[in-house]
Design a protein that fits this description.
Blueprint: H1 2-24, E1 32-38, E2 41-47, E3 78-94, E4 99-111, E5 117-124, E6 130-141, E7 144-150, E8 155-158, E9 165-179, E10 188-197, E11 205-206, E12 209-220
Antiparallel strand pairs: 1-2, 3-4, 3-11, 3-12, 4-5, 5-6, 6-7, 6-8, 7-9, 8-9, 9-10, 10-12
C-alpha cells in the first residue's frame, strides 16, 4: 500500500509541476503585418511588433494629379470699356441732292481701349436741318481693330438753314466685328461729334476739322 501511495503521490506531483511549468511558458504572439512606404516603393513587414525600416513610413504617399499636355486653355470673353475723343478731319463732297463723306481720319485720346486711330466714310441726303446719316468705320490699326456701322437713329443736324454752319452728329455705332483681340466683338457705342461746313453747293468739297466722342462697352469673345 505504501509503494502504491508513493507512486501516486509522485505522479500527482510531476503532473502538477508540469502544469505549473506550462503556465509559465509564454504563448507565442501572433504576427502582425504593416505596409511601409518610401516614395513609390512599398514593403510589407510582418512581426509580432512590426516596425518600418529606416527611411520608410506607414503613410501612403498621395498620388500627384495627372497633367494633361497639349490642352489649350479656354479663352473667356469679357467687356472692354471705351470713352475716347477723336480729333481729325472729315472730307465732304456735295452733289445736287446729297453729300458724300469720302473719308474720315482722326486720332483718339482718353480711354481708347487700344483703338487710337479712326477711319471711315459715309453719306447723307439732306432735305432739312436734321437728317439721317449712313456710314461705317474702323477703330484701331494693326492687329487689333474694331468695325462699326452707324445705326438708323444716327443724325446730322445743322445749326442754321444755310451754310456756313456747324453740323452736330448724334447716334449710335453698332459693332459688327473686328480683328485680333476684338475678333467677333459685339456691342453698341454712343457717338457724338461736330464739324463745320462752308458751302453746300454741288461739286463743292472741303475737309473741315472733326471732333467725335465714342463711348460704351465692347463685348469680346
Amino acid at each position: 500500500m505504501k509503494t502504491t501511495s508513493l507512486k501516486k503521490l509522485l505522479l500527482i506531483t510531476l503532473t502538477t509541476a508540469g502544469l505549473v511549468a506550462g503556465s509559465l511558458i509564454p504563448a507565442q504572439a501572433a504576427n502582425k503585418s504593416i505596409t511601409c512606404y518610401k516614395g513609390s516603393v512599398s514593403k510589407v513587414v510582418s512581426a509580432a511588433k512590426p516596425k518600418c525600416p529606416t527611411g520608410y513610413t506607414t503613410t501612403k504617399p498621395v498620388a500627384s494629379p495627372t497633367k494633361v499636355t497639349g490642352a489649350t486653355p479656354s479663352k473667356a470673353g469679357g467687356v472692354v470699356a471705351i470713352n475716347a475723343t477723336y480729333k481729325g478731319k472729315i472730307s465732304l463732297l456735295w452733289s445736287d441732292s446729297a453729300v458724300t463723306v469720302t473719308g474720315v481720319t482722326a486720332t483718339g485720346t482718353g480711354t481708347t481701349a487700344g483703338l487710337e486711330a479712326l477711319s471711315g466714310n459715309g453719306s447723307s441726303s439732306p432735305s432739312s436741318q436734321c437728317d439721317a446719316i449712313n456710314g461705317a468705320g474702323v477703330l484701331g490699326s494693326g492687329a487689333d481693330t474694331l468695325k462699326v456701322s452707324v445705326d438708323s437713329t444716327s443724325k446730322g443736324c445743322a445749326a442754321d438753314a444755310d451754310a456756313p454752319t456747324t453740323v452736330t452728329l448724334t447716334g449710335n455705332a453698332l459693332i459688327t466685328g473686328g480683328t485680333g483681340k476684338y475678333a467677333g466683338a459685339s456691342g453698341l457705342l454712343k457717338v457724338a461729334g461736330t464739324f463745320a461746313i462752308k458751302s453746300t453747293a454741288a461739286g463743292f468739297s472741303e475737309s473741315p476739322a472733326l471732333t467725335l466722342t465714342i463711348s460704351g462697352n465692347i463685348t469680346t469673345k
